[in-house]
Specification:
With 276 residues, the chain is mainly alpha-helical. It has nine helices and four strands. The chain has a two-stranded antiparallel ribbon. It has a two-stranded antiparallel sheet with strand order 3-4.
């Protein structure tokens, strides 16, 4: 954990322990000592009292050197999915947002990888079913084709996931953060930085890890948006209504823009048709 960087007035004492203060809490403005410090990043220090509504220690992904990469990744997924409010109330203890962005990209990529593998297994099962149930020479041929596609999907799944996952995740996270933060900034509802918003939109990708699960995977997008709303509300203190507008408003506008574009193209082509 970084050392506090904010100076305190000479003679200031910690309000909790009655000793010399070493930082000023960015959230509540009280003086604190080293024992009161939960985190300090980019000249923003947070005391343990203000962090008490979150987790008792930094989020798991920020402790990956201690926990190990795999354990920290899945522990963070569990924290985000089960307790998003407490997760985003827990102050970050690291400078920069690269770690959060990487976690979001991993969730998208691993979800795609598992989806490709599952699709390949379904094709293998379909091929075996065709060969076992249907009669005639065409059954064996159809079964072989499905089995071949299934093996190809499974074998190429890492390549396909790596080709599509990280780039799509990065663009999606930055675009979502830009639109959400811009919306809140225009309404003067931002208390955090753009990095705080990007951190929210990155960790909110956690449900995409489950996209391979039949039926549930179709609703992961709604889960992601719900987590974004909670995260924006917590890091900016803007209320659920404004957080929802920031997370959903631009998406609705984008859908209407696409529909309008298709309508213009359709009516344009219709107008070009010769009269009957």
């Amino acid at each position: 954990m970084n050392a506090p960087v904010e100076s305190v007035p000479p003679g200031a004492t910690c309000g909790e322990h009655d000793v010399a203060a070493s930082f000023v809490c960015d959230r509540c403005g009280t003086f604190g000592c080293a024992d009161c410090l939960f985190a300090t990043v980019k000249e923003r220090s947070v005391c343990r009292t203000c962090a008490s509504k979150g987790f008792d220690e930094p989020v798991a992904w920020e402790r990956r050197k201690e926990l190990g990469l795999i354990k920290a990744y899945f522990a963070t997924i569990k924290q985000v999915l089960e307790s998003p409010t407490r997760f985003f109330r827990t102050p970050t203890t690291v400078d920069g947002v690269f770690g959060a962005v990487a976690h979001g990209a991993m969730s998208v990529t691993l979800g795609l990888f598992a989806s490709y593998v599952l699709a390949g297994l379904f094709m293998l099962a379909a091929g075996g079913t065709f060969a076992a149930v249907l009669d005639g020479p065409g059954a064996a041929e159809a079964g072989g084709i499905f089995a071949g596609y299934g093996c190809a999907f499974i074998g190429l799944s890492p390549v396909l996931a790596l080709a599509a996952g990280p780039a799509n995740a990065l663009l999606g996270q930055v675009f979502a953060a830009g639109c959400a933060h811009g919306t809140l900034a225009l309404a003067k509802k931002t208390k955090g930085s753009f990095e705080d918003t990007l951190r929210v939109c990155s960790y909110a990708n956690a449900p995409y890890l489950l996209t391979f699960i039949p039926l549930l995977g179709s609703f992961c997008w709604f889960w992601v948006v719900g987590i974004e709303v909670i995260g924006l509300r917590e890091v900016h203190g803007c209320g659920t209504d404004w957080a929802a507008f920031a997370a959903i408003g631009y998406r609705v506008a984008f859908v209407f823009a696409i529909v309008a574009l298709y309508a213009l193209v359709f009516f344009g082509l219709f107008a070009m048709l010769p009269p009957a």
